[in-house]
């Protein structure tokens, strides 16, 4: 049985949650393209669940911008620009379905507009606890021949801690968008097996500027770190 078939079987056994996952996966991977009509009777038969389960699943997907759901009749897959990529579930489904280089480029542009400013705020507002988390992440990066999985976790911890250290509630929330994409990208970089600059120096430079409460230095150090990321470095 194919993976898609297994997913459909899971929907039949499990109900609402599994039905949401199956439908979302098919939308995000293009199986159900933009403008595709999703007929309630067809989905009910295919997934072996009740109309109530399918209807509730479509309501949830509608709230996330993936479909226009109607109480009666067909629902329709909405254009990609309507999908709420800031929603953690939609982002997870997108990454699972496969993200293009353009997707990662768009995320890098978002990060360049957010993370240097967050680092500058962290230089003003950081606490000793914030520094402890940042130091721990950078220390892990400094370990010679560290396992790639450890480096990826350390990178995620670093960027999460920096956004939190900004003590801006909106920047802090953006960890839910930035960090999952960062992890996916780091995995791809390490899996590529090519030569790249070790991540420790660039990350340590940001932390030292934050420690010194050097607002401009923290901004520029984070910008430089992201510029390295644009050239394929972790």
TrEMBL record:
Keyword Transcription regulation: yes or no? yes
Q: Which domain of life is it from?
A: Bacteria
A molecular-function term among this protein's GO annotations: DNA-binding transcription factor activity
**Pfam families annotated for this entry?**
FCD, GntR
Q: Which UniProt keywords apply?
A: DNA-binding, Transcription, Transcription regulation
Domain HTH gntR-type, first and last residues per copy: 13-80
SUPFAM superfamilies with a match to the protein in the record: GntR ligand-binding domain-like (SSF48008), Winged helix' DNA-binding domain (SSF46785)
Protein name stated in the entry = FadR-family transcriptional regulator
Q: Which organism is it from?
A: Streptomyces chattanoogensis
Lineage, please?
Answer: Bacteria, Bacillati, Actinomycetota, Actinomycetes, Kitasatosporales
